Amino acid sequence: KKRKLTDFKRWSDKHNLLSDWDNRTIFMTSLLRPNSSILDIGCGKQIAKQHLPDNCNYTPLDLVSRSDDTIVHDFNNNKIIELQNIYDYSFCSGVVEYIHDLNIFLEQLCRFSKYILLSYNSRPNSQSIKERVSLGWVNHLSDQCLLKLFQSKNLEIIKQDCFHNQLIFLLKSL
What we know:
globular
């Protein structure tokens, strides 16, 4: 069985962190509450940090170090991450499409966050998996399959929104 890996080369090159993604991240920060602790998973250029509500505590996490305070972790390496803190929010803007095992990923997020705020480009029936793979995406869930996954992980949808063609979910672990 071939081991599923993260595209480390792609994500190590800051030129692959597209500015097109910034507006989605900024939109998502508007769903956060003031005085919260935020774990920014796949923090990239740390756009979220610049747009947080008042008095938020920000912790960046990424595949590679983006700053001195970045927690470095690869969620595709099958190692469970041990964090010292419980965060109010796990913030995942443009991350979920690149995660091989969403079951384990969501289970881990539930262990160290009260809420999960994530974006996802679900697969419409008209879109081929080949097209998604060409974008580097490694999972291909329809809206319905995504909702079933949330339900199977006892995640309540607190808010559902849309940003362009991407779904935005605020989830709470029950």
